[in-house]
Every structure is written in structure tokens, then in C-alpha cells.
Amino acid sequence: MENSLTTLGSKGLINKHEFVRVIIQCLYSFGYKKSASCLESESGIRYKSVDFDLLESQILSGDWDNCIDTVNKIKDVKDDTRSSVLFLVFKQCFLEYLNRGDDSLALLVLQKQVPTLHMSKEMVHKLAYNILSLKEMELGKLDEDIICELRKRLLMELGKQLPPPIVLPERRLEHLVETSVTAQIDSCMHHNSQDVVSLYEDHCCGRDQIPTETVQILTDHGNEVWFVQFSNNGEYLASSSSDCTAIIWKVMDNGKLTMKDTLISHQNPVSFVAWSPDDTKLLTCGNLEVLKLWDVETGTCRHTFGDHDFTVSSCAWFADSKRIVCGSADPEKGICMWDCDGNEMKAWRGMRMPKVLDLAVTTDGEKLISIFSDKEIRILNLRTNAEQVILEEHSITSLSVSIDSEVFIVNLNSQEIHLRDVAGKWEKPLKYTGHEQNKYVIRSCFGGFNSMFIASGSENTQVYIWNRRSSTPIEVLSGHSMTVNSVSWNPKRPLMLASASDDHTIRIWGPSQTNKIQPTETFT
Fold it and tell me: What is the value of pTM for the model shown?
């Protein structure tokens, strides 16, 4: 006889009876019926409990009186669960009575059985509605095959209602293993892949799963590089500089970047770029510069928004790639929404309007996130006009929103990065420290598989990488010789990171290589 007290594992935490039963369930679900039956016979452990086995035979044979009696006798079931189970049984029972024309028995169930459930009037009305609906069906014409199928569906529904150990949750072993694998992935600070994880050993990624070494240095800018951003499809990189230009780089199949176009039209430093969601257009702007729209394929300027006085500090796209929004440090300019032809569609401006430092639009186009007057974050629902205001204690320099628009990060001059949820449900932000930021605009970004990493530049010439689950950096990348202003993680190549620096260069970072290769410098 099987001993239910027998345990497994070095810590004695696994009940052997339950473990074997879960294995039997798994074998049945995989279609290994002979193996499952053999294990049942050899172990003396049944996959289905005695109660559910009896219930199954009664339901499949239409023995409703004994079925109801069995449900009432099952132990360790909460009253509301028992009522829900009986409700489903009565519903099937009622249908079958009506189908065979036995209205008196159907009425008896409705008058005497259902009231015993002590259910709300709403539930009783629901049953009555279902009955009327059934009457409209061609009852009496449901053949045995259909009735049999409905009984099987009832069993499946009861399996979801009844608790363990009466019924095992579906695919229990798979769930347990997946939970274990997920826990190992969650504890792995360098995990950056969607590949299937092997069960043969405990999971642990090495540093080669994230970009940690310089693989290429881009030197075409003639002055400080202030901003970099990969396109949404990961095939291009855009950079902007205090040399008054922006450059579009092409990511080749071998992972190397080559210059595609230099965008020359601005008269002042370019501090910001934004890719359209379809990657066919690019916006460029600067604190003392106008907003320009560029055609990515040709590298030509398609439109300049406003006059020379309309300087824009930041800009963003809506999901349709046809509308943009931009913000200015000048309160009289405020925030404007334009179409690609320069027609103003909406504006928020006025003397009471604080200066706009940065902004972003969620991917669904529903929310506009703005940084106002150094320390204020506003999340505006563009559909309802509802606004959420968040105040930081220290000055904010930049904003970045995750690809799924669930969360966003802000860089503070207090040498902290704060992660917050867009929905506003979190009481406090998650905080990341270790980098250096006191007086310059430093930009950070999300990256890697499922955007589980945060990368940021720093005033101490280094690039910092955090796993979102840890407040301290997991990697510090050295290579630049001056302040690192901006970073961007390739959304389609989780092992590619770009950084822009005051040293006039852009560094492309890749995974650690066993045989180190000197990074290549790319010149015009």
C-alpha cells in the first residue's frame, strides 16, 4: 500500500503520493495513456479521485439524482463552490429533461432544487433566462452525440470549479516546472534571451548575454554627440550632435554600422531625434532649434514646423506615424500637436503653462507624458482629459517610456533613476543608483529581452546597466573619455547597445568575446 506520508527531495518537502499523481496526469495529457495506466497500477495511485471518478460516471450516464447526492457528500468543499457546482449540474439536468419532453421533472428542479442553493436572485434569473433560451432552441432534436458532448463539457467545467485534491489543476506538472524555470530566470541578472531554457541544469546566464564590450566606434560627428536612438525595426541608428547635424546610420547584417545620411539644415546644436513608428520618417530638434521632419529613405528635409522662433526641446510620434507632438521651454509655445504637413491640430499653451523639458506618447496614443518645470511629471489621458501629476524632489533631466508603455523612467540630477508605472498604481517608484549625474542632461533607456534592463550614460565617462529587479548596476562599461549623454538599446538586437558622448564619438557595444578583437573606428 502506498504511504501518503512518504516524502521526496533532500528537504522532504514533496509529498510522494501527490508527486506521482501529478506525473500520471502529465502522462495522460501528453497522450501516453498506456504508460499512465501502468504507473497507476504499479503505484496504486489514481489520477482521478474517488469522488470525481464517481461523479464522472454518473454525469456521463445521466444519473442526475445520484450525481447531486455525490456533490453534496464531497468533503472539504466551500459552500459557495458546492453551490456553483450544483448550479451547473441543475442546468444540464434541466436541459436534458426539457429535451426529452419531461417538463414536470424540469419544473421540479427549478422549484425544489435550485432554491436549496441559496443563490442570488440574479443567478436564478440567469438560469431562468437560459431556460427560455433553450426553449427557443429545437429541443427534442438534440441527439445522443450532442448530449454526450454537453456532459463532457460539464465535466470540464466542474474540473475547473472543484478544488484539489478532488481535481488536479490542468497541466499541473508543467505549471510547477515552468514556475521553477521562471524563478531561476527572474534571479538571473544577465538573462537576455527568449530561447527555451534547458531543464538539465539550473539556469544561469553569463556576461556574454548583454552588451559589455565596444565592438565599433563611430567618429563622424565633429563635436559632442548628445543623443542616439535606434529605429523601431532595429535597422537604423540616428544620432544628433552639437555640430548642428544629425546622422542616420544603417545597421548591417553583420552587426556593423555604416553612415547612410548626414542631415544638414539646422543652424544650432541638435539635441533630440524621434523615429516615426513605421521608421520612414525622423524628427530632429534642439533647445534653441526648430523642429524638422526628414524622409529616412532619401535623407531630405520634408518640413520645418513653425517659424525660426518656434524652438522645440523634445518631440514624439503617435502610433499612426501621421501625427506628432512637440514641447517647448517657451510657455507661449507650450505643447503642440501637428500633422506631418505642419497643420496644427491641438495646442496647450499660455502664460500659466510651465516650460516643457521632455515628453513622450504611449504606443496606444492614449496618454501624453510630459516633464514640466524641472520636477513635475504629468500624465494626460488624451481621450478623457484626466490628468495625473507626480512631483519629484529633485530636478528631472529626461524621460523614457518602455516599448509596451506600461512603465517609464526619469533621470534625476540627484544621481537616481526612478521607474514608475504609467497607470499610476504604484505608491513609490523603483530607484536605481550608481551612475554620476549632477549638472548635465543624461538620458537612459530600456532594453534587452522584455525590456528587463535599464541603461544610462553618466558624467564619469561610463555606461551603466541595471537589471530592473536590482537597484545597483550589474555592469559598468568603460571606453568613453568624456560625459556619456545618451544611450539606446537596439529593440530587435538585444545584444547591441549604442552610447553617445562629449568625446565626439558613438560607441557600439556587444557581448563579451572569448578572443578579444580591437574595436573598429568608422570614419567618413
Answer: 0.82
